[in-house]
Amino acid sequence: EAGVTQFPSHSVIEKGQTVTLRCDPISGHDNLYWYRRVMGKEIKFLLHFVKESKQDESGMPNNRFLAERTGGTYSTLKVQPAELEDSGVYFCASSLRQGFDEQFFGPGTRLTVL
Amino acid sequence: GNSVTQMEGPVTLSEEAFLTINCTYTATGYPSLFWYVQYPGEGLQLLLKATKADDKGSNKGFEATYRKETTSFHLEKGSVQVSDSAVYFCALRQTGGGNKLTFGTGTQLKVEL
């Protein structure tokens, strides 16, 4: 069974540009999460999808970030326009159900904004 | 709000040394506690967990005990190996707070021969 995959693994862009990150969860997992780790600090929650609906987006930093999960399968996270402070590693995770189910993490996308 | 504090790294140990990585938390109620590990080039993997006070999570020789009186969940291993070199993250999930995880800053462990 394939794990959570993320694309790209690395992205280097200039301030003001747009970047789109993609996450493919484990097949059949209704729950999908985005997290971010900035500059060696703690990993912070961004948002949680249940199928195609946003269950909790309390961690989204501002309106430059847009997450979608059309069809309830893969998800994209767009940053537009990117700022220097958006640099970090973006992790995606998925779980079968909420509650006590383990979250399975992808390898992350390292975003560098110059 | 919820928070997790873990010891600063990097931690460098010789093979077969004893490992302790401290983790304390702040949360209301009775959160579930986790240790995740990230090996180089890979995603985070759940290492162990505990869901109530005095529970001991264990896996691959690692152990951690949920201590509510000290709000701690310290990670220990009696004899580390080079293959244990990784970044270790302590995390909590608030009861009734959805499924989001609150993480600490991570502790990098390097084990040398």
Q: Briefly, what is this?
A:
With 114 residues, chain A is mainly β. Chain A has no helices and 11 strands.
Describe the structure.
The complex is a heterodimer of chains A (114) and B (113). In chain A, the strands form 2 sheets. In chain A, strands 2, 4, 5, 6, 9, 10 and 11 form a 7-stranded mixed sheet that branches. The model of chain A has no long low-confidence stretch (mean pLDDT 93). By secondary structure, chain A is mainly beta. Chain A is globular. Chain B has no helices and 12 strands. The radius of gyration of chain B is 14 Å and the shape is globular. The model of chain B has no long low-confidence stretch (mean pLDDT 93). Classes of the chains: A mainly beta (114), B mainly beta (113). The interface between A and B is medium-sized, with 30 and 21 residues.
Distance between the termini of chain B: 41 Å
State the low-pLDDT regions of chain A, or none. none
What structural category do the secondary elements of chain B indicate? mainly beta
Secondary-structure element pattern of chain A, one letter each? EEEEEEEEEEE
The assembly state of the depicted protein chains is: heterodimer
**Largest protein-protein interface:** A-B, 30 and 21 residues
Low confidence ranges of chain B: none
The helix content of chain A, as a percent range, equals under 10%
Beta strand % of chain A? over 45%
